[in-house]
Design a protein that fits this description.
It is a single chain. The protein folds into two domains: 2-161 and 295-303, Ribosomal Protein S5, domain 2 (2-Layer Sandwich); 167-293, Alpha-Beta Plaits. The strands form two sheets. Strands 1, 2, 3, 4, 5, 6 and 11 form a seven-stranded mixed β-sheet that branches. The protein has a four-stranded antiparallel β-sheet with strand order 8-9-7-10. The protein starts with 5 loop residues before the first strand and ends with a strand. The protein is 36% helix and 25% strand. The chain is of the alpha+beta class. A hairpin with a 7-residue loop joins strand 5 (144-148) and strand 6 (156-160).
């Protein structure tokens, strides 16, 4: 029975980092933990932490859906399990809570399937579940991941080296932005000038991160594809970002679809966090802050005895 008991730990993620819309994802050092044990029948789920009392505890739970999907991909009937979820990733705040569940379910199933799926296979299934690769790639693989998705194929991805001195300050407002709404306000077609702007800034941002160059990061983190439109439904976004920059951050951006705001800094992160928190409160968006690093390891599985 011991080999069938396992614990999976999956990091939070921040996507886009400004100009890398649906292409950049970075794992962060806050985690959801999923403990799986054999059960007599069905899928029994208990929950603690973020999302307790909100997330579903039946077959529509995202971890369970991903777990079942991995077994289906291998042509095997899934076993009955008891799942305990201990969530530390804020829910519906643009920090990859759904990606963590999807990746957790796939990785747990793959462990019980003796590694039948490789990373590309897991990533392909995760993208099918999530709809885009940025969060799930970083959650699965860790680090800063750049993805290019092609329909019907596993995404092509590359890992970008990140300095251990880089800190991610995250302002997490009490208000959440539903992902569906945050995506709805982004136009399906963009001006050529805006596309060119984002291409250049994305390249500057990656170069700045690889070279640990604060000036390039600051220049590169601007965006014209999604943030201007999301600022219309979250007015506190720009003041919080401006406060982070004024306090010494290299750059700042909406984390994923929001509502969390990400700031990157090589300097002391505490003044940046304090400035972001004050700006959030001043603009009617009470919040908390997290001081994190890039999580070099992605999803990790441990067999329990």
């Amino acid at each position: 029975m011991g080999s069938n008991e396992l614990r999976v730990r999956v990091p939070a993620t921040t996507a886009n980092l400004g100009p890398g819309f649906d292409a950049f994802g970075m794992a962060l050092t806050v985690y959801n933990t999923f403990t799986v044990r054999p059960a007599a029948a069905g899928m029994a789920i208990t929950l603690a932490g973020e999302g307790a009392g909100e997330l579903p505890c039946g077959g529509d739970n995202l971890f369970v859906q991903a777990f079942v999907r991995a077994y289906a991909a291998c042509g095997v009937e899934p076993p009955a399990i008891h799942l305990h979820m201990h969530n530390c990733i804020p829910l519906a705040r643009g920090l990859g809570s759904s990606a963590s569940a999807a990746v957790g379910g796939l990785v747990a199933a793959n462990h019980l399937l003796a590694g039948a799926l490789d990373d590309d296979g897991l990533l392909r299934l995760a993208c099918e579940i999530e709809g885009h690769p940025d969060n799930v790639a970083a959650a699965l693989l860790g680090g800063l991941i750049v993805c290019a998705a092609d329909a019907g194929a596993a995404p092509t991805y590359a890992r970008i080296p990140v300095s251990q001195d880089l800190r991610a300050v995250v302002c997490v407002p009490e208000q959440h932005l539903p992902t569906a709404l945050a995506r709805k306000v982004v136009p399906q077609e963009v001006a050529l000038g805006d596309a060119v702007f984002n291409i250049g800034h994305a390249a500057l941002l990656l170069t700045g991160i690889m070279q640990a160059d604060p000036a390039l990061i600051r220049a590169g983190m601007d965006d014209r594809l999604h943030q201007p439109y999301r600022a219309e439904i979250f007015p506190a976004m720009r003041p919080i970002m401006a406060a982070a920059l004024s306090a010494g951050a290299c750059g700042s951006a909406l984390s994923g679809a929001g509502s969390s705001i990400l700031a990157l800094t090589f300097a002391r992160p505490e003044p940046v966090a304090a400035a972001m928190l004050a700006a959030a409160q001043a603009h009617g968006a009470p919040a908390r802050t997290l001081i994190l690093s890039c999580a070099e390891a992605g999803a990790m599985v441990e067999a329990l005895e």
